[in-house]
Amino acid sequence: MKYTQQQYLESGFYSDDDIENYKAKIVKCRKEHKCVSGCEVIIKIGEPAFYESGFLEGKPVSAYTCLPCIDAHLDRVNGVYELEAPKWSTNETEKS
To answer: For 48-64, what is each residue's pLDDT tens digit?
Structure first.
């Protein structure tokens, strides 16, 4: 992980005041998930991910985001820019 767990949790990546009982944490995936941030990479079993959950209009919602997407967001927020493109995941060729 490039940043501390607290920095990920306070990243404000998806700040939506309409989510009730909002919870966020860094998890180790027990099954594969597609990153919801737009890169759509498959987060593999055992890889860490940013997991969010809560209720929207009374219905449960949840999302998994790969850490490279959160890293890129935090880099922009902190004014850190890398010269080369971010390495999204080891399974880059497996995108759907």
So the answer is: 999 999 999 999 999 99
64, 47 Cβ separation under 8 angstroms: no
List the CATH number of the domain containing 36.
Answer: 3.30.1740
Query: What is the three-state SS of 23-91?
Result: EEEEEECCCCEECCCCCCCEECCCCEEEEEEEEECCEEEEEEEEHHHHHHHHHHHHCCCCCCCCCCCCC
pTM of the model: 0.76
What's the rounded Cα separation, in Å, for the pair 20 and 93? 36
In the chain, the number of structural domains is 1
Q: What is the CA radius of gyration of the chain?
A: 14
Query: Residue 24: which domain range?
Result: 5-94
Cα distance from N-terminal residue to C-terminal residue, the chain: 25
Q: Which two tokens stand for residue 15?
A: 């700040």
